[in-house]
Specification:
The structure is a single chain. By secondary structure, this protein is mostly helical. The protein has one domain (2-31, 49-120). Helices cover 73% and strands 0% of the residues. The protein starts with a helix and ends in a 5-residue tail after the last helix.
Length: 133
């Protein structure tokens, strides 16, 4: 079904754009203060600043989804498989974020559900039947 494929593509690009912005913000100021964060938030994590989380956000959850999105538009099978793993990575990212920061924000719920939706949509037969190797 084309509508579900379009939804997956939109969700993937939404993830890419938001992570590129967030990752760039953290990389521009690894203290996080320009984004309203404090390194104190990281006291229960293995990080002393936002450099590594910013890199992960920018590259893995930003650049990679943009590449996956292009593959989805071109109906490449690899991009559908990559979407599945991206959804899982996003869900795990949010879980780890909650564990490390020890706080819960509504935005985390939004991205957790986004990861679930990406994972489910990428496994639907009605979508995968439209993709080629």
């Amino acid at each position: 079904m084309k509508k579900l494929t379009y939804l997956l593509i939109i969700l993937i690009f939404f993830q890419a754009i938001s992570a590129l912005g967030g990752g760039f913000g953290l990389l521009s100021d690894v203290s996080g203060s320009s984004m309203g964060f404090s390194v104190e938030m990281l006291k229960h994590s293995p990080f002393t600043n936002f450099l590594i989380p910013g890199l992960f956000l920018f590259i893995v959850l930003g650049i990679l989804p943009a590449i996956i999105g292009v593959g989805l538009i071109k109906k490449k099978l690899w991009s559908l498989k990559a979407s599945f793993y991206l959804g899982i990575i996003l869900v795990l990212w949010i879980i780890l974020e909650i564990i490390f920061i020890r706080e819960f924000a509504m935005l985390q719920l939004v991205y957790f559900l986004l990861g679930i939706m990406i994972t489910i949509l990428s496994r639907l037969k009605v979508i995968s039947s439209n993709f080629k190797k």
